[in-house]
Amino acid sequence: MEMKMVLQGLETAAFLCVSVVLVWHLWPARKEDKRLPGGSYGAPLVGETLKYMGSMKTSAPAFMAERKRKFGEMFKSKLMGAFCIVTTKADTIKWVLAREGKQFVTGYPKSFRKVLGEYTALSLHGEQWKSTRRFLVNALRVELLKDRIPMIEARVVENLSSWASKGTLSIREETKTLAFNVVAQYLLGSRLKAGPVNDALRSDFYTLTEGMFALPINLPGTNFRKGLEARARIVETLERDVVSQPRPEGEEDQYADYMEYMRKENLPGTTEELLLEKTRCHVLGMLFAGHETAASAMLFAVKYIMDNPRVLSELRAEHENIQTSKFEGGSLTWDDYKNMRFTQSVITETLRLANPVTLLWREATEDVQLNGFVIPKGWKTVCAIREAHYDPAYYERPSEFNPWRHQQEVMNPAKKLPLLAFGGGPRYCPGMELARAEICIFLHHLVTKFDFEQCGPETVTFFPVPKFSNGLQVRVSERDPATKIKLKILA
């Protein structure tokens, strides 16, 4: 018994010693504090991560705002396992993003890199990023998107065709399905059909997203472990049930095209196995980024226009004006999309208030002087774009949904308000136009074909992405053509 107590005491002492050593090595030297802005590192090891997550899981996240009030627009913290400087001002964020490849490189947390893959576009920098960027810009060029408008509209119509018969539905599930189907066909062609394979992939992407935003603790039952397992299933499903299928003539295929492109680039050290892994990461990253932003924007746009009858009225007028200009209900065109000016303002305001990406991560490649402080080499710079989007210095009554605040930008770009929904600098999202076109087409068919009303109370939260507690349950019915608004919007 006495020996057992001695052993337990030794175990406790060893644990305490290891803990002290870990904290000593993982915590920054106090002498650096004079160069850093104010702030707190939170608890040992986990830092302020749990406080941040807890705040974002509420309907009114206050973590960033409280620290901004206490310490100013820049403050130090420890988030997702990394010591960092958080910046909340739009101009400062733009400055940081513009210095990609100079004083900063992409610096997303370990959980992002492990779940999506070390070679996803979010993780690449240097020559590898430049090569991928060239491919992305070409694959998402406007000329190609113009040709894809009919495909996008076909997926929208296909998805909405069953809405009236369902009566009550979850907008979150519907928009996730639609957005995934659009980007999957854009990347992989028509081989990914609706059915069990498609459903399995979408389900695994939900789990993958949770894992990306989790603490990188690889233990059974953790969201991080579940995210890694979901990634493995996604890769297996894509390669077994999609990529291995015959490629229809004339269709593009990001798996094959990206592999061929990277083979021609012939970056040093790229073996066939490494090339395959890079391709997997590329397609996974594109599938994730390509559907998450669009799905979230469509979801919240439905909520905002339901809550704002004047917005819905003007939106319908714009789209009915487009309808009446077409011969026998013809399909939408690129010119139609570019004429959806008020719709664009609705999308911009939606992304401002409920952008799925709340933080952009960069890593300093040298000591960086910024606003009287120093960001030490190797530290993360966390760009809090949600705070920038709610800044009253730019937005009057920032919590209010007001798409008209963006109307002046159409005629006078110099008055453009800061929007960081698609990033900035050299990493500005090349898929921005695809996402906007998809959302515009969705809203066109939604407001011209349906009446809709919310079925019950919903609570909004913002972690890991903005969502509603019940998926935004909505009752829909087909519109009576006799009720159409006759107001015409001048082009």
Automatic annotation (TrEMBL):
<keyword id="KW-0560">Oxidoreductase</keyword>
<keyword id="KW-0752">Steroid biosynthesis</keyword>
<dbReference type="InterPro" id="IPR036396">
    <property type="entry name" value="Cyt_P450_sf"/>
</dbReference>
<dbReference type="InterPro" id="IPR001128">
    <property type="entry name" value="Cyt_P450"/>
</dbReference>
<keyword id="KW-0472">Membrane</keyword>
<keyword id="KW-0812">Transmembrane</keyword>
<comment type="similarity">
    <text>Belongs to the cytochrome P450 family.</text>
</comment>
<keyword id="KW-0443">Lipid metabolism</keyword>
<dbReference type="Pfam" id="PF00067">
    <property type="entry name" value="p450"/>
</dbReference>
<dbReference type="GO" id="GO:0006694">
    <property type="term" value="P:steroid biosynthetic process"/>
</dbReference>
<protein>
    <recommendedName>
        <fullName>Cytochrome P450</fullName>
    </recommendedName>
</protein>
<keyword id="KW-0444">Lipid biosynthesis</keyword>
<keyword id="KW-1133">Transmembrane helix</keyword>
<feature type="transmembrane region" description="Helical">
    <location>
        <begin position="6"/>
        <end position="27"/>
    </location>
</feature>
<feature type="binding site" description="axial binding residue">
    <location>
        <position position="429"/>
    </location>
    <ligand>
        <name>heme</name>
    </ligand>
</feature>
<dbReference type="InterPro" id="IPR002401">
    <property type="entry name" value="Cyt_P450_E_grp-I"/>
</dbReference>
<dbReference type="GO" id="GO:0020037">
    <property type="term" value="F:heme binding"/>
</dbReference>
<dbReference type="GO" id="GO:0004497">
    <property type="term" value="F:monooxygenase activity"/>
</dbReference>
<keyword id="KW-0503">Monooxygenase</keyword>
<dbReference type="GO" id="GO:0016705">
    <property type="term" value="F:oxidoreductase activity, acting on paired donors, with incorporation or reduction of molecular oxygen"/>
</dbReference>
<dbReference type="GO" id="GO:0016125">
    <property type="term" value="P:sterol metabolic process"/>
</dbReference>
<dbReference type="GO" id="GO:0016020">
    <property type="term" value="C:membrane"/>
</dbReference>
<keyword id="KW-0349">Heme</keyword>
<dbReference type="GO" id="GO:0005506">
    <property type="term" value="F:iron ion binding"/>
</dbReference>
<keyword id="KW-0479">Metal-binding</keyword>
<dbReference type="InterPro" id="IPR017972">
    <property type="entry name" value="Cyt_P450_CS"/>
</dbReference>
<keyword id="KW-0408">Iron</keyword>
